[in-house]
């Protein structure tokens, strides 16, 4: 079984990837999307979104990180895909799932799921540009407004030569509302030879097993669940119990050490408050923590609150 860390724009950046892959259990990460419109982007854009490219395309704990591209023009996507792999990305992933309005207006992300032929052309053109030994992968939802093209889209992506496919088992219209329709992944698998990775609504060991059973996939990708329980990958793999609150508080304190990369010192306070939103699903203490730090703007004040919270729980 492989477990992939999901791309999450504005949330799972290189620091979060480092943190979560240090905790362990992940086989591969995918970056936030690089938006491609009508030009070849400078190297610095790729390095900014994926600083791991400076280190052979791996997190400090050695987990490969694949660059994700989003766009609608096959040729521009292909040229930028080539740049990504030349800079050291272990393949490229194509985003056909993003529901954001701004992105869909300029015809990128999930909106493309309405245009099966275009999906095919994009994957084929990118596949031809990227050296054959490096994977070209795609990430889709089940459709834009309905699921009528789910199987056709997967077949088109397969025939265009993709190496594997992640399926987030919901349409764009279904957004992030439970449930995820894992049984639809099985339908897709019945029509393609493409290795498929199941994604959506996996929050626990039991969810992962049910998803595997209903989708027929052994590999899964996890996103929000890994933020709610940072050792979710190990929990799924080995049934390791969820990290305790004191352990988690220490992890959150360690994250403050990354401040040096932050933008004028606001990175840590902002990201920690955002992270609390995910953590409270698994840890009631995160709700209290959020109330205690919501007005704080300085990292050392937040760390002091975390230290108290960890000490109180011991
Ligand atoms: C805040 C946020 C940002 C996301 N950004 C991306 C992205 O950049 N690329 C992408 O393919 N999917 C993106 N997704 C979708 C996730 O990768 C994933 O498919 C989705 O969250 C379902 O998986 P989960 O239930 O495990 O979270 C994003 C999701 C969220 C919640």
TrEMBL record:
It catalyses: 5,6-dihydrouridine(16) in tRNA + NADP(+) = uridine(16) in tRNA + NADPH + H(+); 5,6-dihydrouridine(16) in tRNA + NAD(+) = uridine(16) in tRNA + NADH + H(+). Its EC number is 1.3.1.-. The keyword Zinc-finger does not apply. The record marks 35, 95, 176, 271, 273, 278, 294 as: Interacts with tRNA. Residues 4-281 form the DUS-like FMN-binding domain. The keyword Cytoplasm does not apply. GO terms for molecular function: flavin adenine dinucleotide binding; FMN binding; tRNA binding; tRNA-dihydrouridine16 synthase activity. The active site is at residue 98. It comes from the Bacteria. FMN binds at residues 68, 139, 168, 199-201, 223-224. It holds the Pfam family Dus. Keywords: Flavoprotein, FMN, NADP, Nucleotide-binding, Oxidoreductase, RNA-binding, tRNA processing, tRNA-binding. Its cofactor is FMN. InterPro entries: Aldolase_TIM, DUS-like_FMN-bd, DUS_fam, DusC, DusC_C, tRNA_hU_synthase_CS. Belongs to the Dus family. DusC subfamily. Catalyzes the synthesis of 5,6-dihydrouridine (D), a modified base found in the D-loop of most tRNAs, via the reduction of the C5-C6 double bond in target uridines. Specifically modifies U16 in tRNAs. PANTHER family: TRNA-DIHYDROURIDINE SYNTHASE, TRNA-DIHYDROURIDINE(16) SYNTHASE. NCBIfam families: PRK10550.1 (NF007838). This is tRNA-dihydrouridine(16) synthase. It comes from Alteromonas lipolytica.
């Amino acid at each position: 079984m492989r477990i992939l860390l999901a791309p999450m724009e504005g949330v799972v950046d290189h620091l979060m990837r480092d943190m979560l892959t240090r905790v362990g259990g992940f086989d591969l990460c995918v970056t936030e999307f690089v938006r491609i419109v009508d030009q070849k982007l400078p190297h610095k854009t790729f390095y900014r979104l994926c600083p791991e490219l400076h280190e052979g395309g791996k997190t400090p704990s050695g987990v490969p990180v694949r660059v994700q591209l989003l766009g609608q023009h096959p040729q521009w996507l292909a040229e930028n895909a080539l740049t990504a792999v030349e800079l050291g990305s272990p393949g490229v992933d194509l985003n056909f799932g993003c529901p954001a309005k701004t992105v869909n207006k300029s015809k990128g992300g999930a909106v493309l799921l309405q245009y099966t032929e275009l999906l095919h052309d994009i994957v084929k053109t990118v596949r031809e540009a990227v050296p054959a030994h490096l994977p070209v992968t795609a990430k889709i939802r089940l459709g834009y407004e309905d699921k009528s093209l789910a199987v056709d889209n997967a077949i088109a992506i397969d025939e265009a030569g993709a190496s594997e496919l992640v399926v987030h088992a919901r349409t764009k219209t279904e957004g992030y509302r439970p449930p995820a329709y894992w049984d639809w992944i099985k339908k897709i698998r019945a029509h393609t030879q493409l290795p498929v990775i199941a994604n959506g609504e996996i929050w626990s060991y039991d969810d992962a097993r049910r998803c595997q059973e209903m989708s027929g996939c052994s590999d899964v990708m996890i996103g929000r669940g890994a933020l709610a329980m940072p050792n979710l990958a190990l929990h799924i793999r080995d049934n390791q119990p969820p990290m305790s609150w004191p352990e988690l508080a220490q992890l959150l304190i360690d994250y403050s050490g990354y401040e040096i990369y932050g933008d004028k010192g606001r990175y840590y306070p902002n990201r920690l408050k955002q992270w609390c939103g995910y953590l409270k699903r698994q840890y009631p203490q995160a709700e209290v923590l959020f109330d205690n730090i919501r007005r704080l703007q300085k990292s050392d004040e937040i760390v002091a609150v975390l230290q108290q919270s960890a000490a109180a729980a011991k």
